[in-house]
Amino acid sequence: QLLKISRYLEAGSDEGWLIHPDQQLLYQHKPDGNAFRYGIDDIVESDLFPNLKIVLRDIFPPAP
């Protein structure tokens, strides 16, 4: 999965997200090499969509 994200970024994508619902994690990758890890208590924002705020607790199912 990370290899795919790297290829997309190298091809010109502005951002890549890897989402792991079982672990309730989201990784946001940027072309400059920065990567950000978000957990269940975080809010994800993107420069691509300035008004978008994703509360991960709202989209991930409750942990078993």
Summarize the structure.
Helix content is 20%, strand content 39%. The protein is α+β, with helices and mostly antiparallel strands.
N- to C-terminal distance: 25 Å
What kind of sheet is the major sheet? 3 strands, antiparallel
Averaging pLDDT over every residue, what do you get?
93
Task: Count the beta strands.
Answer: 5
Tell me the helix content: 10-25%
C-alpha Rg (nearest Å): 12 Å
Count of helical stretches = 2
**What shape does the CA trace take?**
globular
Kindly report the spatial arrangement of strands forming the biggest sheet. 1-2-3
Oligomeric composition of the shown chains: single chain
**Percentage beta strand:** 35-45%
Structural class: alpha+beta
Low-confidence stretches: none
> What string gives the helices and strands in order?
HEEEEEH
Describe the structure.
The relative contact order is 0.18. The chain is built from two helices and five strands. By secondary structure, the protein is an alpha+beta fold. It has one domain. It is globular and about 40 Å long. The mean pLDDT is 93. It has a three-stranded antiparallel β-sheet with strand order 1-2-3, with helices on one face. A two-stranded antiparallel ribbon has the order 4-5. It is 20% helix and 39% strand. The longest helix is centred in the first third of the chain and has 9 residues.
Strands, helices and their partners?
Blueprint: H1 2-10, E1 16-20, E2 25-29, E3 35-38, E4 43-46, E5 49-55, H2 56-59
Antiparallel strand pairs: 1-2, 2-3, 4-5
